[in-house]
Specification:
Strand order of the largest sheet: 8-9-10-11-12-13-14-15
Number of strands: 16
Structural class: alpha/beta
CATH superfamily: Ribonuclease Z/Hydroxyacylglutathione hydrolase-like
CATH architecture: 4-Layer Sandwich
CATH class: Alpha Beta
Helix content: 40-55%
CATH topology: Metallo-beta-lactamase, Chain A
Number of domains: 1
Strand content: 15-25%
């Protein structure tokens, strides 16, 4: 049986392929598509390569999933479905898993959010906001969170821009899905099939071809909390105040899918950008903690904002995947420290990075240097660089293995194409 997670280079985002089935009847899942040009540069060429190897007129995509609609996950999938809709690529999706914003908070609230988004000008990669809105947003955050540093407020501003851009991409993806399904009756399943809703409370493990898939998050309680929060923001009728609060507890924390995928005795945990404590809580609720898996896709590109030592104590893996190029400072060195501190030094496991360590550190150094508190200072490589941390742990006798630079195939079954 095939069971291979193929990790593609996706800049600051995620882009994964899951190969399963048999060599005679191979199947393929696409999980997130990265931001910007990841689809054009990496994902589409790789899908065409697989099409050529199969020697078929079309490449069936048995399962396509968007973990959540942040810009660095949804853009590539939106482009993929746009090209399929327009007949530009010979790919045929069978399923789409996609929690749109209005599915989560309702059509009326979703429509209001759309009006908010229209007031903001996001760049191609969702990293900039209209100057006047940025000024108001930072002022609103300072008032609501007086202890927050200017650097953290600026970072949240960038996140809000990515969120707004992602909502537009999510809606475009949903529209393309509906057009493709209408044009190919029976070829594309009902949205989120075989689940009725992509929330943990509504789903037990489901059979997906040869796989067993269990949705561990988000929970119904988290969705209800999101609805209540957004309702409260609607009463404020103030763009920046609403968004300043909204991004904190909902975007990457409440809506991101957490999936446990099993083939035989092999397991992989896909986490999108879910918050670490939510993942642990979900595992404990399902009586799965501590969970031993073959592959753990570490949430939010290894951001320390989504991780703690407790996460790695409750998810123990043979392979840890950190998808990120150093932008936004991800992966954070502290997250890696949590991982290493959670395992005995003698343990053997792989730590996969989608870019070279030196390249990641170079980007992280730029992010560090832009912080107001670090202006004019020299980057303290000894305490900040991931390369230094890895060297120190290796010198201390740690047995983990580092894999640098995607694409990387993690073969859990027969060798994939």
């Amino acid at each position: 049986m095939l069971f291979t997670l193929e990790v593609l280079p996706a800049q600051e985002g995620d882009c994964l392929l899951l190969h399963y089935g048999t060599k005679a009847k191979p199947k393929l899942a696409v999980i997130d598509g990265g931001p910007g040009t990841v689809y054009d540069d990496t994902l589409e060429p790789r899908l065409r390569e697989l099409l050529a190897k199969r020697g078929t007129p079309t490449l069936v995509l048995d399962w396509v999933m968007v973990s959540h609609v942040d810009n660095d996950h949804v853009v590539g999938i939106r482009k993929l479905f746009r090209d399929i809709e327009n007949g530009h690529v010979p790919f045929q999706p069978r399923r789409l898993w996609h929690n749109t914003f209005n599915d989560i908070v309702g059509d009326e609230r979703g429509a209001y959010f759309k009006t908010l988004a229209s007031m903001v000008t996001a760049s191609a990669n969702g990293a900039s906001l209209d100057a006047s809105v940025t000024k108001d947003l930072l002022a609103a955050r300072k008032k609501k969170y007086p202890k927050e540093t200017a650097d953290d407020a600026a970072r949240t501003t960038r996140e809000i821009a990515a969120v707004l851009a992602g909502q537009a991409d999510g809606r475009a993806l949903r529209n393309s899905y509906e057009v493709i399904r209408a044009a190919n009756p029976g070829a594309l399943s009902k949205l989120n099939s075989p689940f009725n809703a992509l929330i943990s409370d509504a789903s037990k493990p489901a059979k997906l071809d040869e796989l067993s898939v269990r949705i561990l998050g988000p929970t119904q309680e988290q969705i209800k909390a999101l609805e209540a929060e957004f309702d409260a923001y609607l009463t404020e009728r103030h763009l920046t105040a609403a968004l300043a609060a909204y991004v904190d507890d909902s975007v990457t924390n409440l809506s991101s899918l957490v999936c446990l995928v099993t083939s035989g005795k092999k397991k992989l945990l896909l986490t999108g950008d879910a918050r670490g404590d939510f993942i642990v809580a979900a595992l404990k609720k399902a009586k799965l903690a501590p969970l031993k898996v073959d592959v753990f896709k570490v949430p939010h590109h290894g951001s320390v904002r989504n991780a703690a030592k407790d996460l790695f104590e409750n998810v123990v893996a043979d392979t840890y995947v950190f998808s990120g190029n150093g932008d936004y400072g991800n992966p954070d060195r502290e997250t890696l420290e949590f991982l290493f501190d959670s395992r005995p030094a003698k343990d053997r496991y792989d730590v996969v990075f989608t870019y070279g360590i030196d390249e990641i550190d170079s980007e992280r150094r730029k992010v560090w240097g832009k912080a107001k508190a670090n202006k004019g200072k020299t980057w303290p490589k000894a305490t900040e660089a991931i390369a230094t941390l890895l060297a120190e742990r290796k010198a201390a006798g740690f047995a983990f293995r580092v894999v640098e630079g995607a694409p990387v195939k993690i073969e859990l079954g027969e060798k994939s194409p």
